[in-house]
Amino acid sequence: MQTTVRIRRARANEASAIARVHVETWRAAYAGLVPDDYLVRMTENGQAFTWRKTLLRKQPDSAVLVAEAPPAGQGAPHTVVGFGSCGPNRGSKLAYNGEVYTLYVAQDWQGHGIGRKLLGGLFRTLYDQGYRDCIIWVLAANPARFFYERMGGQRIAERGQEFAGEVLEEAAYGWPDLEDWLRQTGG
Ligand SMILES: CC(C)(COP(=O)(O)OP(=O)(O)OC[C@H]1O[C@@H](n2cnc3c(N)ncnc32)[C@H](O)[C@@H]1OP(=O)(O)O)[C@@H](O)C(=O)NCCC(=O)NCCS
User: Fold this and answer.
1) Which member of 88, 120, 168, 179 has the lowest number of beta carbons within 10 Å of its beta carbon?
2) What's the 3-state SS for 140-152?
3) What is the CA(176)–ligand 1 centre distance, in A?
4) Is residue 42 assigned to a domain?
5) Could you tell me the residue range of the domain that residue 123 belongs to?
6) What tens digit of pLDDT does each residue of 61-95 get?
């Protein structure tokens, strides 16, 4: 399955497709981690609105990538099955310049190498924009942290982050040398 999935820049009209994956993966991955209220109030329309603004803003040093699966049949559209976004470190005081903000693969498509491909695409994008290192913040209780460890990330910091009135622990993973990572992974 992974060989047929293509990683590319998101188009301005793909906010709804991204929002669909966003809401689906949040509800599945964060049930029990993030307050139910927060997950219940999330809607595809609301997320699409936010993603549309991000896609139209076109900040030169930020990017949104999608993983696109081929059409299910003749005449059917391509399907967005994952997405990720990156850009400058959003203000944490850690000495890392680049940051991956989001990385999500639709549930039915997880475990087929798409997350690895997307992360590689995000690291390549950051590197090409002049970033030499990268951090990612993840909920400390999210099993996705093992994925980041598998991808060579080093746990470098913790912080409390407020979600719907609750303070949740987040962990930061760091990649201090993107060039080395890209060389080793052939990205
Ligand atoms: C985390 C996520 C992006 C990984 O994407 P994926 O396509 O499922 O992962 P891949 O198939 O590319 O996995 C690459 C490697 O990481 C390993 N891996 C992936 N998820 C893992 C996990 N939760 N725990 C341990 N190892 C994991 C795979 O086994 C694979 O190992 P290999 O090198 O031996 O082949 C995806 O599962 C996801 O979207 N999860 C839910 C949302 C989420 O929590 N996102 C992160 C927000 S910070």
Assistant:
1) 179
2) CCCCHHHHHHHCC
3) 20
4) yes
5) 2-131
6) 999 999 999 887 777 778 999 999 999 999 778 89
Is a pLDDT exceeding 70 seen at residue 3?
no
Say which DSSP state 56 is in: H
Say how many Å lie between the CA of residue 135 and the centre of ligand 1. 17
Q: Whose CA is nearest to atom 7 of ligand 1?
A: 115
Query: Strands (DSSP E) along 37-147, which ranges?
Result: 63-69, 79-88, 98-105, 134-139
CATH of the domain at 10: 3.40.630.30
Scanning the structure block, which residue is given the tokens 């999210």?
142
Which tens digits make up the pLDDT trace of 144-161? 999 999 999 999 999 999
Distance 144 CA to ligand 1 centre (A): 6
Characterize 7-33 residue by residue with b for buried, 16 or more Cβ atoms within 10 angstroms of its Cβ, and e for exposed.
beebeeebbebbbbbbbebbeebbeee
Classify strands 166-175 and 134-139 as parallel, antiparallel or unpaired. Answer: antiparallel
Query: Is residue 144 assigned to a domain?
Result: no
Asked if residue 102 belongs to a domain, the reply is yes
Mutate to test the pocket of ligand 1, among 24, 109, 147 (most ligand atoms within 8 A of CB): 147
> Is residue 125 a contact partner of residue 88, using CB atoms and an 8 Å limit?
no
Q: For the ranges 7-16, 53-62, 138-147, which has the lowest average pLDDT?
A: 53-62
Cβ < 6 A, ligand 1 pocket: 25, 29, 103-105, 110-116, 138, 142-144, 146-147, 150
